[in-house]
Amino acid sequence: MSYDYDRIEKAIIFLRENFKSQPRLDEVAAHIGLSSFHFQKMFTKWAGVSPKNFLQFISIEYLKRLLKKKKTLSDVSHQAGLSGTGRLHDLFVNIEEMKPGEYKNGCGGLSIHYSFGKTPYGKILIASTEIDVCHTSFIMNNENGPKQL
Fold it and tell me: What is the DSSP string of 69-124?
Protein backbone atom coordinates (compact mmCIF):
# COMPACT_ATOMS: atom_id res chain seq x y z
CA MET A 1 0.00 0.00 0.00
CA SER A 2 2.73 2.50 0.89
CA TYR A 3 4.58 1.49 -2.28
CA ASP A 4 1.57 2.63 -4.33
CA TYR A 5 1.51 5.88 -2.37
CA ASP A 6 5.21 6.44 -3.11
CA ARG A 7 4.63 5.85 -6.82
CA ILE A 8 1.77 8.34 -6.96
CA GLU A 9 3.80 10.88 -5.02
CA LYS A 10 6.62 10.43 -7.54
CA ALA A 11 4.14 10.87 -10.41
CA ILE A 12 2.69 14.05 -8.89
CA ILE A 13 6.16 15.52 -8.43
CA PHE A 14 7.02 14.60 -12.03
CA LEU A 15 3.83 16.23 -13.33
CA ARG A 16 4.40 19.38 -11.29
CA GLU A 17 8.00 19.70 -12.48
CA ASN A 18 7.27 18.89 -16.14
CA PHE A 19 3.79 20.28 -16.80
CA LYS A 20 5.10 22.82 -19.34
CA SER A 21 6.09 19.96 -21.64
CA GLN A 22 2.61 18.44 -21.20
CA PRO A 23 3.91 14.87 -20.67
CA ARG A 24 1.85 12.05 -22.13
CA LEU A 25 0.35 9.31 -19.97
CA ASP A 26 2.91 6.75 -21.13
CA GLU A 27 5.81 9.08 -20.22
CA VAL A 28 4.61 9.53 -16.64
CA ALA A 29 3.79 5.83 -16.33
CA ALA A 30 7.28 4.87 -17.53
CA HIS A 31 8.81 7.34 -15.05
CA ILE A 32 7.28 5.41 -12.14
CA GLY A 33 7.67 1.95 -13.67
CA LEU A 34 4.08 1.07 -14.57
CA SER A 35 2.11 0.41 -17.72
CA SER A 36 -0.15 3.25 -18.86
CA PHE A 37 -3.24 1.21 -17.99
CA HIS A 38 -2.14 0.44 -14.42
CA PHE A 39 -0.83 3.95 -13.84
CA GLN A 40 -4.12 5.53 -14.99
CA LYS A 41 -6.12 3.26 -12.70
CA MET A 42 -3.81 3.70 -9.69
CA PHE A 43 -3.47 7.48 -10.06
CA THR A 44 -7.23 7.97 -10.34
CA LYS A 45 -7.79 5.80 -7.26
CA TRP A 46 -5.25 7.68 -5.13
CA ALA A 47 -5.60 11.25 -6.46
CA GLY A 48 -9.33 11.22 -7.15
CA VAL A 49 -8.84 12.57 -10.69
CA SER A 50 -7.23 11.22 -13.82
CA PRO A 51 -3.59 12.10 -14.59
CA LYS A 52 -4.85 14.20 -17.52
CA ASN A 53 -7.20 16.19 -15.27
CA PHE A 54 -4.44 16.67 -12.70
CA LEU A 55 -2.14 18.00 -15.42
CA GLN A 56 -4.90 20.34 -16.61
CA PHE A 57 -5.41 21.69 -13.08
CA ILE A 58 -1.69 22.36 -12.67
CA SER A 59 -1.58 24.04 -16.07
CA ILE A 60 -4.62 26.24 -15.45
CA GLU A 61 -3.19 27.59 -12.19
CA TYR A 62 0.03 28.53 -14.00
CA LEU A 63 -1.97 30.09 -16.86
CA LYS A 64 -3.95 32.19 -14.39
CA ARG A 65 -0.75 33.54 -12.85
CA LEU A 66 0.55 34.49 -16.30
CA LEU A 67 -2.72 36.14 -17.32
CA LYS A 68 -2.74 38.22 -14.13
CA LYS A 69 0.62 39.61 -15.29
CA LYS A 70 -1.24 40.96 -18.37
CA LYS A 71 0.66 38.81 -20.85
CA THR A 72 -0.91 38.20 -24.26
CA LEU A 73 -2.91 35.03 -24.81
CA SER A 74 -0.34 33.91 -27.39
CA ASP A 75 2.57 34.43 -24.96
CA VAL A 76 0.69 32.64 -22.20
CA SER A 77 -0.03 29.66 -24.47
CA HIS A 78 3.60 29.42 -25.50
CA GLN A 79 5.02 29.77 -21.97
CA ALA A 80 2.72 27.03 -20.67
CA GLY A 81 3.74 24.58 -23.39
CA LEU A 82 0.37 24.62 -25.14
CA SER A 83 0.15 24.29 -28.91
CA GLY A 84 -1.66 27.60 -29.31
CA THR A 85 -4.37 29.95 -28.17
CA GLY A 86 -7.07 27.46 -29.22
CA ARG A 87 -5.71 24.96 -26.71
CA LEU A 88 -5.63 27.73 -24.07
CA HIS A 89 -9.24 28.59 -24.84
CA ASP A 90 -10.37 24.95 -24.64
CA LEU A 91 -8.58 24.41 -21.34
CA PHE A 92 -10.13 27.51 -19.76
CA VAL A 93 -13.63 26.74 -21.01
CA ASN A 94 -13.43 23.12 -19.82
CA ILE A 95 -11.96 23.87 -16.39
CA GLU A 96 -13.06 27.41 -15.48
CA GLU A 97 -16.25 27.71 -17.58
CA MET A 98 -15.04 31.05 -18.95
CA LYS A 99 -12.84 32.27 -21.77
CA PRO A 100 -9.20 33.16 -21.02
CA GLY A 101 -9.79 36.74 -22.16
CA GLU A 102 -12.62 37.08 -19.63
CA TYR A 103 -10.33 35.86 -16.87
CA LYS A 104 -7.52 38.16 -18.01
CA ASN A 105 -9.89 41.14 -17.87
CA GLY A 106 -10.88 40.38 -14.29
CA CYS A 107 -14.11 38.69 -15.36
CA GLY A 108 -15.52 42.08 -16.35
CA GLY A 109 -18.66 41.63 -18.41
CA LEU A 110 -19.02 37.99 -17.39
CA SER A 111 -22.60 37.23 -16.41
CA ILE A 112 -23.31 34.52 -13.89
CA HIS A 113 -26.93 33.49 -13.57
CA TYR A 114 -28.19 31.51 -10.60
CA SER A 115 -31.26 29.71 -9.45
CA PHE A 116 -32.40 27.54 -6.61
CA GLY A 117 -34.04 24.17 -6.92
CA LYS A 118 -35.21 21.19 -4.95
CA THR A 119 -33.63 17.76 -5.14
CA PRO A 120 -34.24 14.54 -3.22
CA TYR A 121 -31.22 15.59 -1.12
CA GLY A 122 -32.38 19.11 -0.30
CA LYS A 123 -32.27 22.63 -1.75
CA ILE A 124 -29.57 23.36 -4.31
CA LEU A 125 -27.96 26.50 -5.72
CA ILE A 126 -26.96 26.30 -9.39
CA ALA A 127 -24.92 29.02 -11.11
CA SER A 128 -23.98 29.21 -14.78
CA THR A 129 -22.25 31.36 -17.35
CA GLU A 130 -23.19 31.48 -21.03
CA ILE A 131 -20.87 28.48 -21.47
CA ASP A 132 -21.99 26.03 -18.81
CA VAL A 133 -22.73 25.41 -15.15
CA CYS A 134 -19.92 26.89 -13.05
CA HIS A 135 -21.11 26.15 -9.52
CA THR A 136 -23.47 23.88 -7.62
CA SER A 137 -23.95 23.53 -3.90
CA PHE A 138 -26.54 22.35 -1.45
CA ILE A 139 -28.24 24.83 0.86
CA MET A 140 -28.80 23.82 4.45
CA ASN A 141 -30.98 25.80 6.85
CA ASN A 142 -29.79 26.23 10.40
CA GLU A 143 -30.79 28.54 13.25
CA ASN A 144 -28.89 31.45 11.64
CA GLY A 145 -30.58 31.05 8.24
CA PRO A 146 -29.45 29.43 4.99
CA LYS A 147 -25.91 28.07 4.81
CA GLN A 148 -24.15 26.95 1.66
CA LEU A 149 -22.44 23.54 1.80
Answer: TT--HHHHHHHTT-SSHHHHHHHHHHHHSS-HHHHHTTTTT---EEEEEEETTEEE
